[in-house]
């Protein structure tokens, strides 16, 4: 298994730390901390007995030799080619990466599997998270699987099916009249007072490690090549950050040719909560929080993402793009995505489709492009 270290994500901060110590934000500058895995000598071909889960890539994950992992079978989700939808959109090829089939019905299962594995190994007394919904459902399940105490804060406007999933695990759930930023303040205060581990998006280094396996999977499922563009619905940003991290690691470790072009990373946001899109087009290094976030897509209702600088850096390094669409456009695209592919898409997946269509129509994405579009959750979570 690899060895790993921690380092501040800020290019102007030199803080580094050990993976054996419980770490949240950088103690020097309070920016997110990233994992650096020493995975020299690894090969992209997977052993015949490699598990059909994200732990298929254990050699590039922060895991100790022989360490028991927390797993519910997450990862290795389908990558479904959609030729009819590609023709309708106007691109050469289009694949849908369906994260809604993960345990707890979203991509959040990946990050929580790694974060809870590390939390248990480090002996934390409990874990907390603020959530727009799916992260809470994932933490509830993985913390229970690991035997850890957990408390979750969620807005009262969280879709009831997701709140029901959290309650089904018998964990402490607090709902509030507010948004995820308000929940974050309460979760952080509890973590500091009781010594619990706050696994909020990019507030600790390990959820991104689970998320990066999406990038490894896309490469393997496409025969160790990459698409021209990845369209990812983005709220807090850990998925976007993780996928881009994976592409860089694969090239650095020789899994991809050193001169292989990397995909353009494109983020899709809701018009009622688009701080990253606004910052990107303004040329800003950081996002200004959205004071009144409004969208029915709970996963996109993140007014002040802590990973803003990392997402914006990813977009610029990849020559990517960002766009936001209104909820009515998102609803219509979600229905078309499901009808065209059989994928029971969450609103976030519909948002990604709507953004892809508009970028192609405006000439911001080439019509000969090969594109992977992520549906990050199950549409069933939004029906009640």
- Counting helices, strands and paired strands, the structural category is alpha/beta
- What's the tally of helices? 12
Q: Low-confidence parts lasting 5 or more residues at pLDDT below 50?
A: none
How far the N terminus sits from the C terminus, by CA atoms, comes to 44 Å
Q: What helical percentage do the residues reach?
A: 25-40%
> Biggest β-sheet: count, sense, barrel?
6 strands, mixed
Q: How are the strands ordered across the major sheet?
A: 4-5-13-10-11-12
Radius of gyration of CA atoms, rounded to a whole number: 19 Å
The CATH topology name of one domain reads Rossmann fold
The CATH architecture of one domain can be given as 3-Layer(aba) Sandwich
Multimer state: single chain
> Would you tell me the overall average pLDDT?
96
CATH class of one domain: Alpha Beta
Q: Tell me what portion of residues adopts beta-strand conformation.
A: 15-25%
Order of helices and strands: EEEEHEHEHEHEHEHHEHEHHEHHE
SSE topology sketch:
Blueprint: E1 3-8, E2 16-18, E3 33-38, E4 79-81, H1 83-89, E5 93-98, H2 108-121, E6 126-130, H3 134-146, E7 149-155, H4 160-168, E8 172-176, H5 180-194, E9 197-198, H6 207-211, H7 213-221, E10 229-233, H8 238-252, E11 264-270, H9 275-282, H10 308-317, E12 321-325, H11 327-341, H12 347-361, E13 370-375
Parallel strand pairs: 5-13, 6-7, 6-9, 7-8, 10-11, 10-13, 11-12
Antiparallel strand pairs: 1-2, 1-3, 4-5
């Amino acid at each position: 298994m690899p060895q790993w270290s921690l380092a501040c994500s800020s290019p102007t901060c030199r803080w580094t730390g050990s993976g054996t110590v419980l770490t949240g934000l950088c103690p020097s500058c309070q920016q997110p901390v990233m994992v650096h895995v020493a995975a020299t000598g690894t090969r992209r071909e997977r052993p015949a007995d490699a598990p059909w889960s994200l732990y298929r890539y254990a050699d590039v994950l922060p895991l100790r030799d022989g360490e028991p992992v927390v797993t519910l079978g997450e990862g290795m989700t389908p990558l479904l080619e959609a030729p009819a939808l590609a023709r309708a959109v106007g691109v050469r090829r289009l694949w849908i990466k369906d994260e809604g089939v993960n345990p707890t019905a979203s991509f959040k299962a990946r990050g929580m599997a790694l974060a809870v594995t590390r939390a248990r190994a480090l002996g934390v007394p409990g874990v907390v998270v603020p959530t727009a919904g799916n992260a809470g459902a994932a933490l509830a399940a993985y913390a229970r699987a690991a035997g850890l105490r957990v408390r979750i804060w969620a807005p009262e406007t969280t879709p009831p099916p997701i709140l029901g999933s959290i309650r089904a695990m018998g964990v402490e759930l607090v709902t509030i009249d507010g948004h995820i930023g308000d929940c974050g303040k309460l979760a952080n205060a509890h973590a500091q007072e009781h010594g619990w581990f706050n696994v909020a998006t990019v507030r600790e280094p390990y959820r991104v490690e689970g998320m990066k396996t999406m990038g490894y999977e896309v490469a393997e499922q496409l025969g160790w090549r990459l698409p021209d563009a990845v369209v990812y619905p983005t709220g807090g940003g850990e998925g976007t950050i993780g996928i881009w991290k994976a592409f860089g690691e694969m090239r650095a470790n020789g899994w991809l040719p050193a001169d292989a072009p990397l995909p353009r990373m494109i983020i899709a946001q809701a018009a009622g909560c688009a701080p990253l899109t606004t910052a990107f087009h303004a040329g800003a290094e950081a996002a200004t929080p959205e004071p009144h976030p409004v969208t029915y897509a709970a996963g996109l209702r993140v007014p002040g993402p802590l990973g803003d600088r990392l997402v914006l850096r990813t977009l610029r390094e990849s020559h990517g793009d960002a766009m936001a669409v209104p909820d009515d456009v998102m609803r219509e695209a979600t229905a078309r995505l499901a009808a065209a592919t059989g994928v029971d898409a969450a609103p976030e997946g519909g948002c990604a489709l709507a953004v892809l269509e508009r970028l192609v129509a405006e000439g911001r994405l080439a019509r000969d492009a090969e594109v992977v579009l992520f549906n990050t959750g199950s549409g069933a979570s939004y029906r009640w």
